[in-house]
Amino acid sequence: MITQHILVPIDFSAYANQALENAIELAKALRARLTLLHVVDTMSWGVAQAQAAIPPSVWQDLETSLAERMETSRKRVQAAGLQVETLILHGAPSQTIIDTAQDKGADLIVMGTHGRTRLTHALVGSVAEKVVRLAPCPVWVARGTPETSSA
What we know:
The protein is of the alpha/beta class. 50% of the residues lie in helices and 21% in strands.
């Protein structure tokens, strides 16, 4: 199978930045297109309550800020000579990534991981781990370090 479409979930961390760099290099080699996805986690405990308590103008400012950050990432991909689409969706991150890969027909997901271990991993879980287990396509997990990656 030839990889023609790569989904890159972005949370604007150094780890996601490293994954985006990897995805750009791979896409250039394969002449693939990229879809950049940011998921606003609306499923975490307390988010629904926060949305109800925070004025709509604050949520609009957040959406505007996210769109600007995604535009910066989009320009980075375009500067590499690649086709790119950006999406900002709301939901549970792992499930939204999996659903988007399915809906968009992605051949590969390239994503970062924070590399949490032990208690933090047990309490928080791993979006990357869930995606690896349930994705409809292969997943490349890029584990960068904040010191070597720039956000």
